[in-house]
From TrEMBL:
Lineage, highest ranks first: Bacteria, Pseudomonadati, Pseudomonadota, Betaproteobacteria, Rhodocyclales
Protein name as catalogued: Urate oxidase N-terminal domain-containing protein
Residue stretches making up the Urate oxidase N-terminal domain: 3-301
Keyword Zinc among UniProt keywords: no
Residue ranges of the TM segments: 12-32, 93-113, 119-140, 152-173, 179-199, 256-275, 281-301
InterPro entries linked: Cyt_c-like_dom_sf, Urate_ox_N
Amino acid sequence: MEAYLLDWANLLVRWLHLIAGIAWIGASFYFVMLDNSLKPPKNPNDAKRGVFGELWAVHGGGFYHSQKYLTGPKGEPLTQDLHWSKWEAYTTWLSGMGMMAVIYWIGASSYLIDSSVMALSPAAAVGISITFLVAGWVFYDLLCRNMIGKDGVLAAIVFVFVMVANYVLHQVFSARGAYIHVGAMLGTMMAANVFFHIIPGQKKMVEQIRRGEQVDPMPGIVGKQRSVHNTYFTLPVLFIMISNHYPMTYANAKGWLVLGVLMVAGVLIRQFFVLRHRGQVKWWLPAAGVALIALLMVLMAPKQVDAGGEKVSFATVKAIMAQRCIACHADKPTFEGFAQAPKGVMLQTPEQIAAHAVMSAQTVASGYMPLGNLTAITEEEREKIAIWFAQGARTAD
């Protein structure tokens, strides 16, 4: 019953996380587009009132006129009700932490720990996880606080920091656990930027405007810095959110490097859209991103298995799966923590094994399955499954 309830918690929190993430990233993309598409106001009176830029748009059968004031309207009180974009960010982060708890903390033995990487107790793994997320934010925040106005240098240092963290995590956790922690670290930075800097800075400026005081521009400068970081983090974080469905990436022997290259590709593609909003079309940016992905596809292509040697019988493969896979991949799993077979994949009958032959061969050969190698499958057994598949994956000897 406990495993069944955890499955429901996983489903509902994941659904909430997806909805909130769409709302947050959608709003972020919209305001980045708006900010980079502004034109100087055509009405001289608007400029006198403090309008920095404006944009006319059409959508949903109507026309919209957006105007931006850097430090609020001049010569008039700021009495209008203000819409604050913050709960999307907070809900995304909170639901993401909920998923982290349900999947990777409660299920640490299955999803977070890989004894072949580092032998950890569940308590130690969870402690390292929490410490890492907190320390990652603190280090990043200190960097940003001390490098205002040094955007290029700061971006380079942040990238190096993320890559070092990426590599270190792969020396501590399972490959899947390492990937999700890189994403959780970036997501924590994004949400904390909103909570600790962007929203408080905006509130401070609003209070100064309403009191008729000279507006301090520094909170706006800091908020802009953190907002820019957030928009470049989005594509890497979105990739990591879906990466658990593609073990060919994180289960690779150089999974940390694969993730680094894909993050760079995401940043390059995002930069193309940021510049395009300003009227600057730099096609080399998405071309470079796509080229990096294409290069990965070539370098990561699986090696061909020699199918011409000794024949591997189906009986041999079935025996391996019975010993190494059936504990989880059955109609009634016996492995603790599983109420049903992962992804509905069952491997009890010849028909089921045949139906999932491609997935089984790929995930077993890559090292992704069994999770954390909890059933201690050997390299020889992995090779036999790969050869059996290469020889036609027959279910009759």
